[in-house]
C-alpha cells in the first residue's frame, strides 16, 4: 500500500505559516510526543522511581529502540543500540575498528565528512599515539585512496553540505578488498534514504535520531556493529552498562555480549520517550518510497529555482543515485539570503562558506510547500531583499 | 534563614505509601518538571524548530546549567559544563589529566570507586597503549599509595556502597605534593554534602545529575576543570561543540576557550529541561544545612536499626566526617531483605554482595519517614518475612 503522505503530515506539529525544509538538521515534533513524555515522567519516573529500570523496561530501551531503527537501515535485530551522541559513537566505532586492524595506522576520510567525525578521529589518533594518522581526501577521490595502508575508511554516506551520496556498497567492497574496515555515518541517511547495512557488508555504522528520525533536540545516537564483529570489537569507551554483568559491580571490565558492549553509561530515558513516539510514524513505512518522493520534491525545487533564481548555483549532484534527501545551492551571500528566507517563514539552513541547504522530507513536506518555497526564494532574489543589515549579522548558530 | 524542609518536600512528587530512601540512585521528580518539559517541547522544539538553538538559548544551556551546579560544588561560574554521561566525563577528565602529566603512567584509584570509573580508566589505558596502568588499593590505603609514580588520583568522594567519604582537600594536597593531579567523582556528593572544589584545589571533577540533583533517569553528567587548567587541558573526546568555532566547520580541531572544550556533541535539551526544573529547588539552599539534617536522619536510622534489628551490621563509618548522605548495612541475605522491604513500600537498594543501602535526602525525607522505615525493616527482620522465594529471585537491576 502506498504511503499516505497527507496522513503522515497530519501526525507532525508544524508551526503556522512555516515551511520547514530543515528536518535534516532537527526534525519536527510528532503530535503524540508530549503525551508520551508526560506519561513516562508521571507514570514511570514519578511513580516507579528506581523501579522503573525493571518495571518500565528502561534498562532494555537502548536495545529495543535499536531494533526499531535497525529495520530502517537494513540491520538485523540485535545489532543496533542507542546511546550517547553521534560523536561519541564515532569514537567507539573507530577505536574498535582500528584495534581490529592492528597492523595499519591510517584512517581515511573525506573533506565532505561532518567535521565532528574528523575531530573525534583526530582526538583518537592523539590518544593512540603519534603513529596513527587521519587522512582526508576529496569525496570523489575516496575510492582511489583506499590502499593497503588504510586501516579504516570512515565516511558520512550523505555529505552534510552538498547532499552528495557515496556508494556504500561499492566503497565497502573496495575497502574489504584492500583489507580495510568501514565506519559509516548515517546522520543524513537514517530515515532519509534506503540503507542496507547488511547487503553492503558494512562493518560499523553510527547515526543520530534528531534529524530524519525526529527524536527532538539532543536525542541519542545509535551504533551498529556487524554481527560478525560484535563479539570481537572492544569498545574503547568501556562503561558499566556495556559490561557483561553491570550489577555484579566487578572491579574489572568484561565486555557484554554482542552489541550490548557498545553501551556506556545510563541511557537518557526522557529523550528516548520522545524518540519512541517519533518512531511510531515509521511503522509500515518503506524508505524506498519515502526517498522516491523526496527526489520528486527535490527535482521540483531544483527546476523551480534554476528557472526563477538562476543566480543560485546547484551544489548537489544531479544524478538521483548520488543524492540523499537534501538539495543545496551556493551563493556568496548565502547567509543573508537564508536569513531573509527564514524571515518569510521558509526555514532551511546555511553552511559556511556559501551553502544554502534544504531538506525534503516527504513525511511532512508536500508539493505545495515546495512550490511556495520556490516562490518565496525567487522573490527574495528578484528584489534583492536579502541585502539588509539585519540579515547580514551572524548569530552563533544558523 | 533555616531551610523549611516541609516546604521543599512539598515540591516533590512522592508516590502514595512509599518512603523513598533511594534518591542516591535516582532522585524523585519535582512537581514542576512535567510542565517545564511540556513547555520546552511545545513552545521551543515544536514552534521554534531549529531556531531553538539560538532563540531558546539551547546552545548555551550546558554552560548555564553548569553555572547553576557550580554553586553547589564550590566552583566558580564558567568552570562547569553539562553533557554526556558520567562515564564519558570520567574518560575526558582522566585523558586530559594524563596528558598534563606526561612523564607518569599510573592512575591510582580505590576498590570503593564506582566500577564504571575503573572500567573507563581501563579502556583509556588500553587505548593509550601498554605502558599505562590502573592501580587500585583499598580506600583507607589511598593516602599512602600516592607516590611519585602516580600521574592521576581518581576517586569517588563518597563510596557508592558504604557511604564512606574521602577527605578531598587532604588527598588533593597530598597528590599535589607528590606531583599528581586529581579527578574527583562527585556522583554521591553533588547535592548531598558541601563540596568546595575551589578550596580543595581539585584539578578535575565529574558528577551526575540524576541522583541528588533529581534530573530524571539518564539526565546529563557534568565536568569541572580548575580554571588554572581549563585552557591547557586537551579533551581526548574532541567533538564539534568543544571546537573554538563549531559553526565554521573547519576540517581540523581547535579546542574552545576554557570549559567549553569539554563539550562533545549535541546536548540533550529535553533531559536538561527536567534538570532545570529540578535545580529550582536548590535556589537559596545551603548544602551545609542539608548535610547536617541528613546526618541527623542517618543517626536516627542507625540508632533505630542497631537497637531493633541488631543482626544487620553497619557498613558506614560512624564518624560524621567520613559520611556522605547514605547509610549501608550488611547482611548475607541482603538481597531478599531489600526485596521484602520494597514490597512494604520502603525503597532502598541492594549492592552486591551483601549491602543494603539507604539514602537520606532531607529535601523530601523527614523524621517520620525514617521512623517508619526503621519499624518496617525491624519487623521484617523480626518475622524473617524476607525468607520467601519471591524475594530471592534476582531481577536484572536492583
Automatic annotation (TrEMBL), chains A, B:
UniProt cross-references to InterPro entries, sorted A to Z: Kynureninase (IPR010111), PyrdxlP-dep_Trfase (IPR015424), PyrdxlP-dep_Trfase_major (IPR015421), PyrdxlP-dep_Trfase_small (IPR015422)
Chain residues that bind pyridoxal 5'-phosphate: 86-87, 114-117, 156, 185, 188, 210, 240, 266
Assembly description: Homodimer.
UniProt source species: Rhodobacter calidifons
PANTHER family reported in the protein's UniProt record: KYNURENINASE
Name listed for the protein in its UniProt record: Kynureninase
EC number: 3.7.1.3
Pfam families: KYNU_C (PF22580)
Keywords, ordered alphabetically: Hydrolase, Pyridine nucleotide biosynthesis, Pyridoxal phosphate
Function: Catalyzes the cleavage of L-kynurenine (L-Kyn) and L-3-hydroxykynurenine (L-3OHKyn) into anthranilic acid (AA) and 3-hydroxyanthranilic acid (3-OHAA), respectively.
Protein's pathway: Cofactor biosynthesis; NAD(+) biosynthesis; quinolinate from L-kynurenine: step 2/3; Amino-acid degradation; L-kynurenine degradation; L-alanine and anthranilate from L-kynurenine: step 1/1
Record field: catalytic activity: L-kynurenine + H2O = anthranilate + L-alanine + H(+); 3-hydroxy-L-kynurenine + H2O = 3-hydroxyanthranilate + L-alanine + H(+)
Swiss-Prot/TrEMBL cofactor(s): pyridoxal 5'-phosphate
SUPFAM superfamilies (alphabetical): PLP-dependent transferases
MF terms in GO: kynureninase activity
Class of enzymatic activity (EC top level): hydrolase
Taxonomic superkingdom: Bacteria
